[in-house]
C-alpha cells in the first residue's frame, strides 16, 4: 500500500477532491468547477490537472500515490463504464480507463450514492460494520447496500434504489420515476414537505407551520423538536413510512446498521428515533435490534468513499 | 478438487442425503429418519454413519471425498453455529465442527432455504446467474438471496426472510412470526388457502371451489387454469401481493432472476405469469425486465445446494 490517494466526487456543479493518506486521514480537500459544456469533455482533464498540480505542490512523488477513486452521478458498471450521466453531459465511455490514461495512476469508479456509502463504512457512521445500508434523505431518497464490506450494484445497476420501494397503493401523485407511492415521495426532503402540505390542508389544527409560506423538511423537524403537535404528527408519518420500508430492506440483506444521511438527517436524533420506533414495529424479530446511526461525513462521504473503493 | 461430495438436507421428519460427483452429477440419493428425541442428539451421528456406510458400500476411498454440505431448518451463522432449530430439538452448537469431528471430512453448514437457493443457482433454475433471489412458496414463504454467486446470511442470520416483508397494514390475523400483514400470510400455500376462504365468504359467486370442503392452493390454481372466475380473482390477489413484494426486493439487490420454488410453484407458469404481471407494475424501471423462472430441482435443491456451498 502506497502512502497517498485521491478521492474525487463529481457533482453537476463542482468536483470535490480530497488528498488522503491511505490510512484514512484526510490531508486536504478542495473543489473545482464541473465544466459540463461540450458534452463534459473537460471534466476528467480538469481533474487530472488538479491532482497532478496538488501532487507537485505537496512535493509528493507520483510513485507514492496509490491512485484515484471517483464517484459519478449515474450508473457505473463493474468495468468502470458510465452508462449515462445526464447532469455531466456524458454518454457511454469508460471513465476508469480514461482517467488512468490521463494521470498514469490506478483508478476506481462507482456510482456516487454507492461511493458515499463506502465512505461512511470506512470512516463514518458505519465504521466497523461488514453489512450496512446507507440511506440518503436528500432531494430524493438514495441508497447504498453493503454486503461483506462491498457495495453491491445489482444486475442492472439498480441495487440500493430503495427510494423506489412502493410503500403506498393509495398515492395519486406521480414519483419522478414514473410510478406512484414510492418511498421517496414521503421520506425525502421534498417528501416531508409534501406530507406537511397534505397534513395542514386536511385540518385546522393550530401550528407554527402555518406561519411559513412554503413548509420545508427543516421547518417540520424544527417545529417537532419544539413540541408542535402538528409537526410531530407529520414526523410520525415520515417515520412510519421509512421505518416500514427499512424493515422490508432488513428482510432482504439484514444489515447490522442503517446509516441515515442527506439533508433531512441534519435534524439529528429525532430522525433516527422515529425511524427506529416504526422499524421495530415492522421488523422480523431476528433483525429487530439493528442500529440506526446518523451519517458522519456529510458532503465528504464521496471523497472518503472514492479512496475506500480504490483500496478495497 | 476431489471426486465426491455429500449433500445433506435435514428436515423435521427425514434427512435427505445425496452422493454427488463434484462436477454436479447426482449419483444416488436416499433418506433416513430424523430422530428428534433427546434434543436431537442422534441426528448428526446418524448422518455420519449413513455417509460412512455409503462410502464403504460404493468402495470410495475417504480421501476421494471433498466433504459434506449440510442445510438445517433454522439460522446458521458464518462459523457454522446453529442458533436454534426448534423442529430438531437443537439448541446452540457448532454443527459444522461437530459433523467434521464425526466424519473426518470438511463440512459446510447453512440455513436450508439459503442452501436450496445455492442448489438452484448451481444446477437448477438460476444456473448461470450471479445475482439471484430464490423464493420458496411452501407452508411458509422462504427466501435465499444470492449476490455475486454467494448466498448472504445477514448480520442476524435473517437475510432472505422475505416471507416477513410487511405487505399489508390492514391484516387482522397474526403471522407465525408474531407480526401482522407478512407476505407469508398471502403467498404461501396456507396463504393462498386463506385468500380463497376470505374471497369465498365475501360473495356468492358461483365457483367449483365451493364444492371443496377445505380449499387449498392446488385447488385454486387448478380451477384458475380451467378458467374459473373466482379462482382467477384469487390468483390475481396472490400475484399482486407477491409481485409487489418482489419489486421491493429488486430495489435492494436487483437480481437478474427470481427462481420460484416450493409446493405452490408446481402449478407452473400461471404462477410466474401472474407474479411477473404485478412485478412489472411496481418495479423500478431499470429492474423491470428481471426474469422469473420456476425452480427445477424440487426437493433435491437442498442436497445440490449443500454440495454447492461446500465447493464455493
Overview of the structural elements:
Two copies of one chain form a homodimer. By secondary structure, chain A is of the alpha/beta class. Helix content of chain A is 37%, strand content 21%. Chain A contains ten helices and twelve strands. Chain A has a five-stranded mixed β-sheet with strand order 3-2-1-4-7, with helices on both faces. A five-stranded mixed β-sheet of chain A has the order 10-9-8-11-12, sandwiched between helices. A two-stranded antiparallel ribbon of chain A has the order 5-6. In chain A, a hairpin with a 4-residue loop joins strand 2 and strand 3. In chain A, helix 8 packs across helix 9. The longest helix of chain A is centred in the C-terminal third of the chain and has 25 residues. Chain A is globular and about 65 Å long. The model of chain A has no long low-confidence stretch (mean pLDDT 95). Chains A and B meet through strand 9 and helix 8 of A and strand 9 and helix 8 of B.
Approximate helicity band of chain A: 25-40%
| Structural class by sheet pairing and helices of chain A | alpha/beta
Largest interface: A-B, 41 and 41 residues
The major β-sheet of chain A equals: 5 strands, mixed
String of helices and strands of chain A: EEEHHEEEHEHEEEHHHHEHEH
Provide mean pLDDT of chain A, rounded: 95
Reading side by side through the largest sheet of chain A, how are the strands ordered? 3-2-1-4-7
List unreliable stretches of 5+ residues of chain A: none
Strand content of chain A: 15-25%
Amino acid at each position: 500500500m502506497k502512502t497517498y490517494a485521491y478521492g474525487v466526487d463529481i457533482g453537476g456543479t463542482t468536483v470535490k477532491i480530497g488528498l488522503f493518506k491511505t490510512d484514512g486521514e484526510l490531508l486536504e480537500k478542495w473543489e473545482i468547477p464541473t465544466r459540463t459544456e461540450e458534452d463534459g469533455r473537460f471534466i476528467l482533464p480538469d481533474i487530472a490537472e488538479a491532482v497532478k498540480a496538488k501532487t507537485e505542490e505537496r512535493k509528493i512523488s507520483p510513485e507514492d500515490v496509490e491512485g484515484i477513486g471517483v464517484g459519478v452521478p449515474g450508473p457505473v458498471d463493474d468495468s468502470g463504464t458510465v452508462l449515462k450521466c445526464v447532469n455531466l453531459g456524458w454518454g457511454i465511455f469508460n471513465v476508469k480507463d480514461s482517467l488512468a490514461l490521463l494521470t498514469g495512476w490506478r483508478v476506481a469508479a462507482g456510482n456516487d450514492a454507492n461511493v458515499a456509502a463506502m465512505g461512511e463504512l470506512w470512516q463514518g457512521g458505519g465504521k466497523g460494520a461488514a453489512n450496512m445500508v446507507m440511506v440518503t434523505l436528500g432531494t430524493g431518497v438514495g441508497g447504498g447496500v453493503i454486503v461483506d464490506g462491498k457495495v453491491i450494484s445489482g444486475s442492472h445497476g439498480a441495487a440500493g434504489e430503495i427510494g423506489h420501494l412502493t410503500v403506498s397503493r393509495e398515492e395519486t401523485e406521480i414519483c419522478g420515476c414514473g410510478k406512484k407511492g414510492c418511498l421517496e415521495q414521503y421520506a425525502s426532503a421534498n417528501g416531508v414537505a409534501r406530507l406537511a402540505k397534505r397534513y395542514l390542508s386536511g385540518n385546522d389544527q393550530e401550528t407554527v407551520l402555518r406561519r411559513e409560506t412554503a413548509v420545508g423538511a427543516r421547518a417540520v423537524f424544527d417545529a417537532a423538536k419544539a413540541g408542535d403537535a402538528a409537526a410531530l404528527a407529520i414526523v410520525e408519518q415520515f417515520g412510519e413510512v421509512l421505518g416500514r420500508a427499512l424493515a422490508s430492506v432488513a428482510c432482504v440483506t439484514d444489515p447490522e446498521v442503517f446509516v441515515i444521511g442527506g439533508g433531512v438527517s441534519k435534524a439529528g436524533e429525532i430522525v433516527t428515533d422515529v425511524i427506529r420506533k416504526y422499524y421495530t414495529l415492522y421488523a422480523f424479530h431476528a433483525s429487530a435490534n439493528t442500529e440506526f446511526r446518523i451519517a458522519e461525513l456529510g458532503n465528504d462521504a464521496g471523497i472518503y468513499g472514492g479512496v475506500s473503493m480504490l483500496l478495497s
